[in-house]
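hey team, just a heads up i'm posting the complex here instead of the shared drive bc the drive is being weird again. everything in one block, sequence lines first with there labels, then the predicted structure for the whole assembly after. its three chains so it's a bit long, scroll down
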Amino acid sequence: MRVSKRATSAIALSAAAALVASGCSSGGGDGDAAASKDGSIVIHGVQPENPMVPANTTETGGGKIVDWLWTGLVEYPNDGGAPRNALAESIDTKDSKVFTIKIKKGTKFHDGTEVKAKNFVDAWNWAAYSPNGAQNGTFFSDIAGFDQTYTEDPDGADGPKKAPVPSAKEMSGLKVIDEQTFEVTLAAPTAVFPTKLGYSAFMPLPDAFFTMKPEEFGKKPIGNGPVKFVSWEDNVLIKLTRFDDYNLRDKMKIKDVDVKLYQDENAAYNDLLANNLDFMEVVPTSALAGDKWKTDLGDRGMNTVTPSTAFIAFPIYDKRFQDPKLRRAVSLSINRQEISDKIFFGTRKPADSWANPLTPGAKPGNCTACKFDPTTAKQLLTEAGGFTGEMVLYYNADSSHKDWMDAVAQQIKTNLGIEARAEGVPTFAVFRQNINAHKMTGLYRAAWQQDYPDVENWVNPLFVTGGSSNDGLYSNKEVDALAKQASAAPSLEASHEAFAKAVELVDKDVPTIPIYFYGQQSGHSEKIKKLELNNVGELDITSVEL
Amino acid sequence: MSDPSTASIVSTPAAHPTDSPAPATQGPQSNEKPRGLLGDAWRDLRRKPLFWISATLIVVFLLMAAFPALFAPGDAVNGSLSRSLDKPSANGWFGYDVQGRDVYARVIYGARASIVVAVLSVLGTLLVGGTMGIIAGYRGGWVDGLLSRIADVFFGLPFVLGAIVILTTFNGSGTSNSKAEIMGLVIVSLTVLSWPVVMRLMRSSVLATKEADYIVAARALGAGTGRIILKHLLPNCLAPLLVYGTIMVGSFIGAEATLSFLGVGLKSPVVSWGIMISDGQQFIRVAPGLVFFPAAFLVTAVLSFVMLGEAVREALDPKLR
Amino acid sequence: MGRYLLRRLLQLVPVFIGTTFLIYALVWAVPGDPFAGKCGERRCPDQYIAFMTEKYHLDQNVFVQYANYMKNLVQGDFGQTFSQREISDIILTSYPNTLKLALVALAIEAVIGLGAGVLTGLRRNGFLDNLVLVSTLFLIALPVFVIGFLLQWLLGVQWGIIKPTVSSEMRLSELIVPGFVLGSASVAYIARVARTSIAENRRADYVRTAIAKGLPMRRVVGVHLLRNSLIPVVTLLGTDLGALMGGAIVTEGIFGINGIGRQVFRAIVTKESATVVGIVVVLVLVYLVMNLLVDLLYAALDPRIRYE
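-- predicted structure starts here --
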């Protein structure tokens, strides 16, 4: 009954480049080239929630397939190196404000038309034009002229008023120079902009997209990546096959990929064990218990870490949680190591830093509130004047969060001596609605996976006043100032330096509590001889050999 | 014209008036005090070992529900991760769950919520469905038509949908209902969604019985509607309801588990067997006891209710005597 | 007979309207904004929510929405899901799967339940009787997800007798285990009811006459006893088909069957009234038609029942 998306960040499993520590590639030798050439595999998937349009896909099921069907301007190497050009020939800038982007000549969409500069500009303008209602529309807010194409609803989505029609249809900051070149002018200097370009919102769209309804396109998507779309039988199967005209680096080594759409991960896991399924990205919790997956899969199992962190957030708009001492006390009363060992059987790492350490620019071990220190915790609680009433920790019950939330609540209860319990909210939608409306009456779980690999993505959205995911309404003027300075820094190094200072201030205030860093356990069949996972733990489809 | 639904889950109308409440049929050969149907049943019951076994078990379970501390000294709510998934030992007879809580204590404390919710929902369902069924069956005509159609509407409602809507509306997150209120809500939703079946059962039972000779005789003797329903119809139509009702106790314990699983039912720190089974399912390969122990208690409890129902039913049904 | 049928069919109309409205209103009343959770841990842009709300006319009141929906439904338009798929497509692909599964479950349930019922009804209170009682109750008491998981694990993975999941062709042989899992909870009801019914009729005059006549026992049971005891069983089985189809959600999930259960559940939590009603409408029709069939069957089984 897993209905919600895996509740990580919006951009569930899209592009990003991080240092994947270990265990990415599996298997010893190379595959048999002949067997691979016409080979086919069946892999685990879930039904995409929406028609697959890159700028309108934010969930795991569709996001994964969109990533395979498209190749962007830059790509994030599996081994965790810095982003490198993929479709882009060059991305040049002098001031981090005006970028000249040149794309490689002669690459094609799956319908045979050539990928041109215009395809990027049109796609971005479509997504940024607010009446089109694209989920990823706000990703283009860096670009000059975005405020003319994207208008806000004056009284929120629920209010009676409607957003005014935007005054422009296209962003003034985008300009096509010639068939292979376009120029992007940003509203303000942003050093991290080129890094963002590998994210799926920035993919090009073929001319055909603009002649049909987006949902029609999304049912039979036309991309420019190493595989092309064949067919999609709802809730059953999505068929993909090698795109023979693909001429960039990452060509497919096998031919056909069938994505079998499961409702239940245990069913998929049993299929994997019975050699009915060739790859499963995340083995279910029931197999992690007692390390069963290791005995089940042997050397077909893979263990990786992904750049995501699980938090418990405070509703700082609630008076009871406004004292930083109380927040620190709660954080110090949680024994993260024990939760990692007993609840997750060692498959998650206890969190000890604010930004996930796999993210470039993030400093490891900078969370002083992440220690387990019940004595100091109790003392701080007394200094804060104690806590009256019951502390309730909320989670969405449609995904497996109950065990660890129960454990956290129990530790708070035992170590601080206050009443605490965890409570499930039936659906992710209701859960998010309450969070968005700032109506939470207790702590709540949250998770963040970087959208693109830079520490900026762990500070601006989460800890800056008005940040897109700063749901607890944390606000510290000094943090805001430092983050602003960091975002506009001329170089990435200077930017990372300033962000580190901002994080030090965050550490004093403890606006949320990092609990654990995500890990991922995957498995494959005996048929697959070689495969790699990408930087966020997704299967790199082009690396598969049989 | 006979109504289509005359045919019923009780097979054929009782062929003979076996009970003789009306003085006219009372034979002179009996010098015992005339007993009612229930008196007869009680005399019959007393002789049955089945009745005594099941009654004892039920009393034990009821005691468990009322005074769990008598049975388990341990703490059912608070655990410690250092004991997580420990095997059964002298301290924890059934071992510990993933949160390090004493499974034995939890099973004992779980009796209350499970039994209270299941039994009260069954009673509610029988009461609502039974009353509607008797009215519909006895009155017939447009009353019957209306009630039957209402039942049809509710019958078409998927259980999960109804339960989610009722419970999220009244028991969503942020609502600070007390334990008793949450239990009440769960009971009400189970009742609201299950009564149509009982209503159909009762209605067809009444339809089959109401033309029986002894009812006709009672009516001829001038018995009022209320008396006919309470004294004659009800005892004779109760048997199928009892069979159904006792089995229903079992499925309601399971239904309560499903609701908790979906996050709309009972919430921690309330413990129930259903919650334990659905929580333990993930660890079935590592610690099967987490599912086995609550399931064993659940099956025993259900079994006692079914056996009791069976004994009572046989005692009530003169044809099987 | 014809008039009776006509009357029954006419009665379907108010039930149909009542059920669809009730369901529509209930789904509408489910708390939560259907689009609030669409963007993960980030707020969805207001523009996106406004766009979707307007597209699906969710800003109108429930009566207007329902009236619009019914108007389209009468014209054969089931509407679209929030992910812009035709609901009629979903119904066409997932219904046959659920129906197949439910029919297999029904058959298994009838065979096991009736068999157990006859055996125990003839020899009441013996060892066999108690054994059947305990084992059927065990099936009731264990939640479906536990039974399903265990059978899939043992038969599919450990012993390799079956494939763990059902392929999209839905072959009959693949459906036996899922069918058993789905029907397991009802087996006990069928067995109990059949047992009671057989035990009652066992003492009826006509059975005594048949035995006295010197008929072989097999004929007495097979022809006289069974036929007369079938009515309650048929009632249960008939109404159970609808319940099985509506309750297949867990079984479908475990065995990877693309059926309606998952669709309904997903649609409920995302507040997709149109999908829920669309699927339930067909379910209600199945239920109503089964009821009618059961009633007609009575006449065949029991000559005392006549429809005019």
